[in-house]
Amino acid sequence: MQILTPQVFWAQRHGEIFLRVELSDASDVDISLQGHNTLQFRAQGHGAKGDNQYEFSLEFLEPVKSEIHQKSTQRQVDIKIRKRDERWWERLTLREKKPLFLAPDFDRWLDESDAEMELKAKEEKINKISVESRVRKDPYIGLKKGYLFMYNLVQFLGFSWIFVNMTVRLFILGQDSFYDTFHTTADMMYFCQMMAVLEVVNPLLGLVKTGFFPAMIQVAGRNVILFVIFGCLDEMQNKAVVFFVFYLWSSIEIFRYPFYMLACIGTDWKLLTWLRYSLWIPLYPLGVVAEAVAVIQSLPIFDETRLFSVPLPSALGHSLSFSYTLQLYLVLMFLGLFINFRHLYKQRQRRYRSRKRKVH
């Protein structure tokens, strides 16, 4: 019986070699590896020259692992062999001249760059599955998400009440509404800002991924303005600056809190996302400027009332006015503006880079 060579098609990945032997109804298939890189194939089947015994030998460019996976179908024999070292081969065989019976398998063919992209996609999928499995192992994940959802919902409702109340009063009373803002909204603002202390605690407990330091700067800064400047000085409570501070704070938060609230349930609204990551760019610096105006207006009042002044020995004077502390605080306020603005801008860049990757 005449011994013939079948048609063999090949393709590769970084870690594997694929061979497709065009031999239908193959039987007595014998595949072995000689040494570290020579494949021997022998089988009975129907090929290009009819029903005969077919065989071939391939000496690979580099060593391969001894384990061979093969599957015979009515149309062909599929062979998969793992490379010993996972890297791209410039050709299949040790000899530069390709055997006549060997051809590329264009159904599975990828060039090196495409194979790298496929490998990267597999790794990302594995990493995603690994992360999801770790998340599912957390028995308290539902409780944590429920807590964060309710926290953001309560803050959203509180700041929405402040924003709507101030807006309605502005339309009805005009500029007159500037001067009684504190007396009409302070209680709700006190509540919201005391609740905001949890935004400093949540990163420490690992409940959110946001940084501890930026959250502490914002919460501490606002509470100084609310509780020390406005809360302790009756003279400040009737000033127009209170309106601008409260209005700018609430304008930011009515978009920030619902964004995080919906993120807890895996929902993303494009318009809300854009507002959350864009409105702060003008509003946050304006809010800091309004806070700075409030501090500057309070300086002569603290000098006059001597509130929070530090007593000094008689040789040095009567007391050290709290206004000096606030002047230092003004400097720290604008330093905090720079730190937080940089942090928020990086958040925005990361957000839109990840959205572009998902689109592509």
TrEMBL record:
E.C. number(s) listed in UniProt: 4.2.1.134
The GO terms this record gives for MF are: very-long-chain (3R)-3-hydroxyacyl-CoA dehydratase activity
Pfam families in the cross-refs: PTPLA
Q: In which pathway does it act?
A: Lipid metabolism; fatty acid biosynthesis
Residue ranges of the TM segments: 146-168, 188-212, 279-302, 322-345
Q: Name one GO cellular component term.
A: endoplasmic reticulum membrane
UniProt-annotated location(s)? Endoplasmic reticulum membrane
Lipid bilayer topology: Multi-pass membrane protein
Keyword Cytoplasm belongs to the record: no
Its recorded reaction(s) are:
a very-long-chain (3R)-3-hydroxyacyl-CoA = a very-long-chain (2E)-enoyl-CoA + H2O; (3R)-hydroxyhexadecanoyl-CoA = (2E)-hexadecenoyl-CoA + H2O
Which intervals hold domain CS?
3-93
Instruction: Give the record's GO biological process terms.
Output: fatty acid elongation; sphingolipid biosynthetic process; very long-chain fatty acid biosynthetic process
Q: Which UniProt keywords apply?
A: Coiled coil, Endoplasmic reticulum, Fatty acid biosynthesis, Fatty acid metabolism, Lipid biosynthesis, Lipid metabolism, Lyase, Membrane, Transmembrane, Transmembrane helix
Family the UniProt entry places it in: Belongs to the very long-chain fatty acids dehydratase HACD family.
As for what it does, the entry says:
Catalyzes the third of the four reactions of the long-chain fatty acids elongation cycle. This endoplasmic reticulum-bound enzymatic process, allows the addition of two carbons to the chain of long- and very long-chain fatty acids/VLCFAs per cycle. This enzyme catalyzes the dehydration of the 3-hydroxyacyl-CoA intermediate into trans-2,3-enoyl-CoA, within each cycle of fatty acid elongation. Thereby, it participates to the production of VLCFAs of different chain lengths that are involved in multiple biological processes as precursors of membrane lipids and lipid mediators.
For this protein, the record's PANTHER family field holds: VERY-LONG-CHAIN (3R)-3-HYDROXYACYL-COA DEHYDRATASE, VERY-LONG-CHAIN (3R)-3-HYDROXYACYL-COA DEHYDRATASE 3
Q: What is this protein called?
A: Very-long-chain (3R)-3-hydroxyacyl-CoA dehydratase
> Which species is this record about?
Poecilia reticulata
